[in-house]
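HUMAN: Forgive my ignorance: could you write out one protein's sequence and backbone structure tokens?

ASSISTANT:
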Amino acid sequence: MTFQQLFHLIKVFLWSYCNTLRYFIEFSYNGKNYFGYQIQPDAVSVQEELEKALSTILREEIKTTGAGRTDTGVHARKIFAHFDTEKALNINLPQRLNSFLPPDISVKRIFQVKDDFHARFDATYRTYEYYISLEKNPFTLDSAWQHWKRPLDIDPMNEACKILFEYEDFTSFAKLKTDNKTNICQIYKAEWEQSGSELKFTVSANRFLRNMVRAIVGTMVEIGAGKLKPEDLRKVIEDKNRNAAGTSAPAQGLFLVDVGYEF
């Protein structure tokens, strides 16, 4: 390769790099029909549907990076992803995307951010909600844990919530055999509320481990059912053993409801 050819390649690369724009996309989805957000081999994912629609409209291969990966069957009311393109996007792109996407995925807005802003690593907090139905309800089969055969007392469950703030290592609530470099998380909020026959658990943290919220809920339900006392949660956490915690709550009751950034 001659010097002139090399110089030309470098110019093309720099032009392409300098003209790449980064966009954030805010969207939501019903996770019932998906094996989570992240692309998986031989499984339908939200990321696959989103990238397919973006690539079709923009006529180039688009890869997205999400704020996190939800498990199979988990829903998201508010989640973000970023993607790069050299195109200046049309203001009507969200509406066009919604025409291409399945009915259970909805795009709210798309906006430009700094070139190095990251949907996952620049998130300052994430908030989840988990719903439990205390009566048999055919209309919430896909959005709440149907826990109507045994009553739950949320007073000891809320006592247990206060104990969560005393700890940062949540290994006992982490899915086994993952690639986590650390199981340290800082929980900012954890509380149970009851409205009629529905319970709602709200939890916010700087980060969550895979399966963490569902494992916490499963353990809290054992406390609410009287199988464990609130103070037993300390031993569960201090054991740093997934087998010490309760069974994971079903996926359909879990919603990612917010992801925070300092834009």
